[in-house]
Amino acid sequence: MRSHLEFRSGALRDPPHVRPGGETVARLLTTALPAHGYRIERMVAEDWGWCVKIAQDCFPLWIGCGAYAEYPDGHLCFITPSRPRIWRWLRRIDTRETVERLADALEACVRQSGVAHHLRWWSDEEVRAG
């Protein structure tokens, strides 16, 4: 299941004084995702980056955006939940269809920005390894 997208873009890098990193990417997604049918609840700063919370009834759904230290212009966006099934209110919910649809929209938003390159989805093994 696609949940972690890494890519590179100097144009989407935050200014050095902005901490935590990932705000520029989060703002891009907040603006672009509604065109793909998503309603954004809010954007929240976390200690690791930025969280774009998406309105969704069945389970909490959000995209984390942060700097990816492997590259000076690296970015990592990850969708939560990143597992195919979760427990909610004492029942199992299949998240695959919802997360895959959001993964398609996330990739489209990043590609359509016109300033991102080297897009790569992490494998399930890479996601588990962190």
Overview of the molecule:
By secondary structure, this protein is α+β, with helices and mostly antiparallel strands. Helices cover about 25% and strands about 35% of the residues. A six-stranded antiparallel β-sheet has the order 2-3-4-5-1-8, covered by helices on one side. A two-stranded antiparallel ribbon has the order 6-7. A hairpin with a 4-residue loop joins β2 and β3 (about 50-55). The longest helix has 17 residues, at about 95-110. It is globular. The two termini are about 15 Å apart.
- Residue runs with pLDDT of under 50 for 5 or more positions: none
Using the CA coordinates, give the radius of gyration: 14 Å
Q: What is the number of independent domains?
A: 1
> Mean pLDDT, as a whole number?
92
Order of helices and strands: EHEEEEEEHEH
What is the percentage of strand-forming residues? 25-35%
**What is the 3D form?**
globular
End-to-end gap: 15 Å
Number of strands: 8
Sketch the major β-sheet. 6 strands, antiparallel
Question: Strands across the major sheet, in which order?
Answer: 2-3-4-5-1-8
What is the CATH third-level topology name?
TATA-Binding Protein
- Estimated helix fraction: 25-40%
Q: How many distinct helices?
A: 3
What CATH architecture do you see?
2-Layer Sandwich
What is the class in the CATH system? Alpha Beta
Instruction: Output the structural class.
Output: alpha+beta
